[in-house]
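Figure 2 data, in text form.
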Amino acid sequence: MDYFCPMNYPQTLDWMFAKLPMYQREGKIAFKKDLTNILAFSKALDSPEKRFKTIHVGGTNGKGSTSHMIASILQEAGYKVGLYTSPHLKNFTERIRINGKEIPKQKVVSFISQHQAFLENQKLSFFEMTVGMAFDYFANQNVDIAIVEVGLGGRLDSTNIILPEVSVITNIGLDHTQFLGETLPEIAFEKAGIIKKQIPVIIGEEQAEVKEVFLEKAKAVNAPIFFASKSDFLYQTDLLGEYQKNNAITAAAVFQYLKGFTVSSEHIKNGLLQVVKNTSLKGRWQILQENPLAICDTAHNKEGLSLVLNQLKKQNYQELHIVLGMVAEKSLEDILPLFPKEAHYYFCKPAIPRGLSEKVLEEKASDFQLLGKKYTTVKKAYSSALLNANQEDIVFVGGSTFVVAEII
């Protein structure tokens, strides 16, 4: 019989993070193209995902913001709403929330303690056990509905055991190509794996290169399909950043197809204006301080960074200071040309095993005429940028979710 010593919350997290492979920390070795484990875990938990309704949200960019928007709208309509997202910025418990409140630490400890032998014997990944934890928590707390964000891809993602009321795919970009494919249609095929038989699917952006992939899959499973970018509506949202307009249109479109829930246009309007208050979303064009203005954003791939950097160019400032760090597997040749040459750069390494060395980043950046100094930590880089900036300057922090997490 397996016996495990009782653990407190920090020890529980250490066990989850260190003992088992975790994609966010280690990269490719932690990625499993298989649903066997999560299906076995779900069975052991008595299929919790079947005890509440869900909306499934995938895509390359904007799926986190869109998930939070949908949750906020449903909260405004008076429902008890679960929200599962990843990765977290500061605390593990951010991943699992009900009406904006994070799962209590003691629930995390008791869940892992109760199922530790199974997790150990079955060799579940960090992501698989976290998905099981979220579904179990939502079921036990009797949520009316849960918004479930895809972790990676779609077809073989651990979240893809749910049968949602509506599926959402925000857009397709070249990210995680080492797992999902080298071309947009290949990646779209993986993301389209969340389209289920006769369940409506909302596609956030109509993209010529991948439209046919979605139409074919929807037709094959007789799923109603709607491209939200065709909508004429414009919505205001409290999430700063022009790029959020597309996400707001996508989130609102869900309620044209969601059955069995009473959601008015007023709920949609108020929900989109109260996303941060209702869900505690962080890291999306977030203002860190004024004078000098400091902004951070978690955008980390070509499409996401293009939108954020375009908005940055439209700001008024004397000088621009950019605190930049990335993970090792990023295609720097695709990303670095997006950045403005006239900015002052503060290169740094996020404090995770797969963080890209600040020395390598500085060398590669200089090939694209992006010049600056290197720092051993994100905090040192950020402090230096604030010190060098005057009142009329802007400091931007980004390049990776993990960089933003260290300064929020």
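Caption note: Confidence is low (pLDDT under 50) at residues 22-30.
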